[in-house]
Amino acid sequence: MRTATALVSVAALAVVGTACTAAQNGTGEAGRTTTNSLERPAEDGGALATAGQRALEARVRQILATDVVQQQIQQVRELYDSDPQGATPSGRATAAAAAASIGAAAAQYAVTEDPDRPVLMWAVTLPHRFAGLDMPNSGYGIENPDNVYRQVTVAGDARYEIRGRFPGQAPAEVHFEMRDSIPGTAALTAEGGTQVGSLTGDAIETEPDGTFVLTMDSAPANGRPNHMQIPAGDTSLLIVRDLLNDWASETPSRLEIVRVDGPPVAPERTVDQQAARTAEILGQIAPFWMKYFNEYYYKTPENQIRPARERPGGRGLSTGGRFALAAGEALVFTVDPVGAESLGVQISDPWGVAYPYRDKTGSLNTTQAVPNPDGTYTFVVSPQDPGVRNWLDPSGNDAGLIAVRWQSVPGKPPVDAALRSSAVLQVADLSTALPDGTVFVDPEERRVQQQQRATDFDRRLTQ
Asked: Quick one: pLDDT at residue 299?
C-alpha cells in the first residue's frame, strides 16, 4: 500500500448504526455446529467480530427461520434433485447442505442491501460462532477459502467513507470491487455479473500506521486520492476481498463504512420484508449458478482442467474443471505459479459449495502446499487419503468442481504456461508416477497438517 504524507487520521473503529444495534436483539436461531465451526469470544475487538457484524448475523438468523425462506430453500433442494448432478452419489449427498448454504448467502445479501445504514458484512464463509451464537455455512459459487469476503450496498445519490487500517502483516492483496448487481442476478457471464469499479490495496494511500480513508460518491475523483466512483442514479454492490495467502500470519484489514451525506433515509426493512427479499434473491441465484456450472463446467469433459484465462480488473488468472473418479482413481494435475504472489487451488461439491477446508485440505495454496523441485505444484484429488502431502480432500465424495486462481501476477501473465498437465492415475501407482521429490505423509502427519490448518484459519476471527 502506498503511504501518503497528509491524510486525515482514522479514529478507532466503532459500533455501526442504531438500526444494527437494535437488530442484535433478534432471537431467531438457524445455525448448526460442524467440524468447520469456530468460536469468537463475546467481546468485540477483531477485524471481523464487530458489533455491526453480530447485529446483521442476528437478523440473518431471524430471516432463515421464516417459513418463506425455508420454503424457498426446499425449492432449491428440489431444483438440485431434478438436475443431472442430483442423480449422482456426490450430488445427492451434498444437495441439502448446498441449498441451505446458498440460502444463507441470499439472506446475507438481503441484510446488506440497505445503502442508508451500511455495514460491511463478512459473508460467503464457513460456519462460525460469535458470542455463543452459531452462523451456518454461507459458501456458494466456488468461494475462495483464501479470501475474506465483505459486502455492502451503496447508492449513487449518497456519499460514503470507508475508514480502515491495514495491519502490519497485511493480506497479500486487498481488492475493492463494485458490481452492478448481486452475482447471479444478471446475465450469465464467467464472473457472475458486471464490474463497474475496481481499486486494489496497493493503489491506496495510507498513513504510516496503515490507516486510510476511501471516499465513494457519484463524482469523478478529480485528483482525490483513494476514491471510487459510484454509478449515478442506482445502487451498487461493493465487494471487498482480503486475500490471505499465509493463514498463519496475514490478518484481515479493519474496515468501517460510514454514510456521510445523502437524501433522507428510507424506513428500515422489517424481518418479513427482508425474508421476502431473501427468497427473491435465492430464487435467482440458485438457478443461475446451477446453469453457470452446467454451461462452464459440465459441458467440458470430466477429469480435465481448462486452459487458464485472464480475469477482469487485473485480478490475475483462473481456470477450472471437474472431477468424477471411479474407485481407486485419482486426478493429478500440475500448475506453474508464473510469478503470482498467490496461487490457490480448491475443490467444491457439484453445486459449487467448497468442500471443508478449515481442518481438511479442501483447498491448498503455495504457503500450504509443497512445490516440485522445478517450482511447479502437483496436486492430487481422490476420495480417500492417498498419503500425498498435496492432497485435495473431497470429504469422501467422488465428484465435484475444481478452481485454480493465480492472483497478484506481475506484468503480462504467461497464460499458456500456467497449466502444465492433468491426468487420471491409479492411487496404487502414485508412489512411482508422481514427480521426483513429492512429499508423502503418514496418518499422524496428516492429522498435524489438518490441526495446523484449523489453528491458522481461526486467526481471521481473533485478530
From this structure: 94
SS3 of residue 151 by DSSP = strand
Domain boundary among 275, 294, 313: 294
Compute the C-alpha angle 410/178/110, nearest 5°. Answer: 135
DSSP structural state of residue 389: T
Distance of alpha carbon 309 from alpha carbon 320, whole angstroms: 10
For 394, the domain range is: 295-461
The answer to whether the beta carbons of residues 283 and 75 sit under 8 Å apart is: yes
CA distance 451 to 359: 6
Burial class (CB in 10 A: 0-12, 13-18, 19+), 63: buried
Mean pLDDT across the chain, nearest whole number?
Answer: 89
- Kindly indicate the confidence band of residue 193, based on its pLDDT and cuts at 50, 70 and 90: confident
pLDDT per residue as tens digits for the range 346-375: 999 999 999 999 999 999 999 999 999 999
Q: Domain boundary residue among 294, 316, 335?
A: 294
Q: Give the closest residue to 124 by CA, choosing from 353, 396, 407, 421.
A: 353
DSSP string covering 296-361, please? HTTTSPTTEEPPPEEPGGG--EEEEEEEE--TTEEEEEEE--TT-SEEEEEEE-TTSPBPP-SSS-
| Number of domains the chain contains | 2
Those residues whose C-beta lies under 8 Å from the C-beta of residue 225, and which sit 6 or more positions away, are 4, 7, 205
What is the rounded CA–CA span in Å between residue 163 and residue 310?
A: 31
Q: What is the DSSP letter of 180?
A: S
> What's the pLDDT score for residue 6?
30
Element (H, E) at 149: strand 147-155
Higher pLDDT, 29 or 193: 193
Q: Is 80 exposed, middle or buried (0-12, 13-18, 19+ CB in 10 A)?
A: buried
- pLDDT of amino acid 310: 87
> Both 77 and 215 in a single domain?
yes
Give exposure, 7-21, as e/b (b: 16+ Cβ within 10 Å).
beebeebeebbebbe
> 175-184, 263-272, 334-343, 409-418: lowest mean pLDDT where?
409-418
**304 and 187 within one domain:** no
How does pLDDT run across 15-32, given as a tens digit for each residue?
233 333 333 333 232 322
Task: Say whether both 20 and 123 belong to one domain.
Answer: yes
Asked whether residue 337 falls in the same domain as residue 237, the answer is no
